[in-house]
């Protein structure tokens, strides 16, 4: 199974893409990609990675992506008591997002800046 994140991007396997969702290029791709709630829900079910589901739900909500309300509801239903880092490789700033049970070791402003940055 493959997923095309952007027209100009190569194909990624879902688990590779999801595990690395925090990579700046992938944050930007997620913000721009024409995704549907059904597709994202199916990918998350196939990969079965709670942390990745929470990260993508958080991003979908932060970016106010149209058409992803069903996915956001699905992702919120998957949230359990344990917290996961937003960026597993990151350190430093840590704010806790109780709704998504994420340790935000990168600020929302930085995420939005990455999404809007022109390369």
Task: Give a short synopsis of this structure.
The protein is mainly α. The protein has helices spanning 14-19, 24-32, 37-47, 50-62, 69-78, 108-116; strands at residues 3-4, 11-12, 84-85, 95-97, 102-104.
Number of helices: 6
SS-derived structural category: mainly alpha
CA-to-CA gap between the ends? 29 Å
Query: What's the overall geometry?
Result: globular
List the helices and strands and how they pair.
Blueprint: E1 3-4, E2 11-12, H1 14-19, H2 24-32, H3 37-47, H4 50-62, H5 69-78, E3 84-85, E4 95-97, E5 102-104, H6 108-116
Parallel strand pairs: 3-5
Antiparallel strand pairs: 1-2, 4-5
Helix pairs in contact: 2-6, 3-5, 4-5
Please, could you describe this protein's structure?
- With 119 residues, the chain is mainly α.
- The protein contains 6 helices and 5 strands, in the order ββαααααβββα.
- The chain has a 3-stranded mixed sheet, with helices on one face. Strands 1-2 form a two-stranded antiparallel sheet.
